[in-house]
Amino acid sequence: MENTIRVTYRYLRVPLLLLLSLACLRFGVIPGWKQVNSDFPNYYVSAQLLQKGILHEAYDIEKFNSHIHEINSNADGMFVMYPPTTALIMQAFTGFDMLTAKRIWVVLTVGMLVLIIILFAKITNIALVDAGNLLLLCGFNLFNDIMLGQVYTMMLLLLIVAHLAWARQSWITAGICWGVVAALKFLPLFFLPLLLYKKQFRLVGYMIITFFFIHFITYLVGGVEVYRSFFAAFIQNYVRGEVAGEIPLSIQYQSMQVIVNRLMLQGNIAAPIGTIITLLWKLTWLLIAVYLCFRMRNQKYFIEVAYSSIILLLLLFENGSATYHLLFTVPIWFTVYKLHISEAGKGFMLLAFICMGFIPFLVHVAQLHTFITDYSRLWCLCLFAACYFYVVIRYHQSGGGGIHNSPFTIHN
């Protein structure tokens, strides 16, 4: 059966790549080329406000949208969840009108995707066509990033370059790349305890210096008021667990916190029960990750396993998630390939990966509204995380490996 799947894939891998590329074009590039009503204005307008010295107004939702409406009356934005450094991303494009800037960014994003595929093939030692298929199987997590003019493909590229540099012990490159991502999205900051535990002090140093240098530039241009507004928003949205200053209730956020909040709002559970459910949710996943990392602590690939586990925990614990956040699951495949996980294990993970990319879209198109389907993205992420923890635990218990191939191990 396994050999049949691999032989079938060998014959169909090029048509599959073409089909997935067409899907990316249809649902990502083309609509992204035509409209600029969502997400991209956050980056474009904030860049303009930074130049004008009034970036602090981006943390007032009404004022920020009034600035956006001056350019595009049909567009809306919400900057309160972003650090001030986000306003640096589109500085080179503010000389263009918003739609032209968006089109330039779409082209650059596609170029970055091609580079990601090349680097992915290099790191995992699989053929380019297979790397392309795996990346495009991110599905609408990737397509939406391109369509909306988001920056997660760029951050994924930086994470992958950092991973490659880290493997080659190029601490400066790895530290700078992680520092840049940390300045835009706090994710790499959670790697610090792991890196310090492994005494990778030079890497940590370059990462912290880069992080603070980027914030210092933003501070010099934007002023102290920007950071006062940001810290107030940070406490409200991260410390208090809110999203854009409100208790997260929308199913678009796809988090356990939203489920609990909605159940409490509808009177189905009391507030103390909701708190217990949330704590048990986080504690369960945390204990699984800690157990795995503890068992692997003296193993060769401990740091890779811990790195992937941290990424999954952060995604599972988000109060307000988005489809493109799941692009951060791509580096987890480096760990899976490095450990030579069994073919069956990779197959289960691949199936869960495909589900994350396509099931939520199919549910949306079919207009299936039930408790299960409304949170399909969250459940698919849970499935992927469960598969990862299971196959790595089995890898450790078996002494490593099993069958060292998969549908995607057709080497260059």
Describe the structure.
This protein is mainly α. 69% of the residues lie in helices and 0% in strands. The chain has 18 helices and no strands. It has helices at residues 2-34, 40-52, 61-71, 98-124, 128-136, 140-148, 152-167, 171-184, 192-197, 201-222, 224-239, 256-265, 271-295, 302-316, 332-338, 343-366, 371-374, 376-397. Helix 1 runs parallel beside helix 6 and helix 14 runs antiparallel to helix 18. The chain is globular and about 60 Å long. The two termini are 24 Å apart.
Strand content: under 5%
Helix content: 55-70%
Shape: globular
Number of helices: 18
What sequence of helices (H) and strands (E) makes up the elements?
Answer: HHHHHHHHHHHHHHHHHH
Largest sheet: none
Rounded average pLDDT: 91
Radius of gyration: 21 Å
Structural class, from secondary structure content?
mainly alpha
Give the terminus-to-terminus CA distance: 24 Å
The stretches of 5 or more residues where confidence is low (pLDDT under 50) are 401-412
Number of strands: 0
Write the layout of secondary structure elements.
Elements: H1 2-34, H2 40-52, H3 61-71, H4 98-124, H5 128-136, H6 140-148, H7 152-167, H8 171-184, H9 192-197, H10 201-222, H11 224-239, H12 256-265, H13 271-295, H14 302-316, H15 332-338, H16 343-366, H17 371-374, H18 376-397
Features:
412 residues; mainly alpha; 18 helices
At a glance:
With 412 residues, the chain is mainly α. It has 18 helices and no strands.
